[in-house]
Amino acid sequence: MSKHQRNLSRKTRLHTISFFRKYPALPYIFKWLCISLIIGALIGTASAGFLQSLEWVTNFRENHIWIIAFLPVTGFFVGLLYYYFGKDVEAGNNLLIDNIHDPKEIIPLKMAPFVYLGTIITHFFGGSAGREGTALQMAGAIADQLSKPFKLDKNERRILIISAIAAGFGSVFGTPLAGAVFGLEVFLIGRIRYNAIFPAFASAILADWTTNLWNVKHTHYHIDFIPKPEFLPVLYSILAGIAFGICAATFSKSIHWMGSVFKSKIKYPPFRPVIGGIIVAVAVFAMGTTRYIGLGIPIILESFEKQLPLYDFALKMIFTIITLSAGFKGGEVTPLFFIGATLGSALSLFIPLPFGLLAGMGFVAVFAGATNTPLACILMGIELFGAESGIYVAIACIVSYLLSGNNSIYSKQKIGEAKNRRFENLHDKSFSDL
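Above: the chain sequence. Below: its structure as tokens.
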């Protein structure tokens, strides 16, 4: 190499160093954009397949109601599967949250097919469950396999799992902004990891885009009339938020209590979904309706169209608590949407706001209170119902979050900032420690 070439090479290196010193975020952005592209493609595709599967099994079940009689038998199969082969992934969403707080072993890839199969069986045979838990667990298990190829350290693995949660949530509900904030917000109440903000948003947006490329359609909701944000409507929104917060706390407490009852009374885990399945199947045939099983999307849509009775939300809560506490797989969030929307619609009997608006407020506010993620739920309300609903959605979510107390459907969720000064001594405690 000539002297001129050496000088040119040296100048190039110096210019490169100077450039990266001037723009220090570029290597970080480039690295996480590459990872987010992979996360988005893989998780968006997984969500698309999962949503299509759910649609098929739901339609089949509704056209062959007799199949619900086999719920206890298939529950036993799911129980056996997890008891003998899936103990290390049985914690589900709590395992993801735990790995954000304290990354340990790579999350086993088998979590994805296990939870997928378990959830499809739950919905096919008539359990009452959601889809977010499955989407998040599939996302976390798939994404964490990238840790070794990309040689990620503990802190980077935290960012990876946050991004996976964001991608799974955003793609399964078609709400990428809410998905990103949910990933940032869910594991530590009151604090957000801003070092994960770019990967979370990039992963959620790319995953949602990928799901849409597979031509998967998400449910659309419409609120007919939204009043101007004046004193009385705002006051009524606060009252509704109180009801939603109490409902969220009741659901969180009840599902943990019922889970402990199943564990204390039935020592052999595979028998728990058998008993739960018998209760659910008998109740469905006795009532003569499938209104309170599965995702319940048609009933959620109905809550935006007319005033529903008060018992709808209570029955859905009971069916969901029994299903999930017994050990069936699925998520809590879509049932929470059902519970909140039907409760909101019914509250229009007492609160003079449009039932569609109250349904939309309840849809996200009960979820906000049960998961302690008010910012994600506010964004979700805006993405689903439009910016005009933003003030009412925000009031309901914030009040519900504050009124739900120290409760959560996720026991490994930690308290970063207490909701009030009375509980400041609980900082950095998880709900399983309380």
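The first strand starts at residue 188 and ends at 189.
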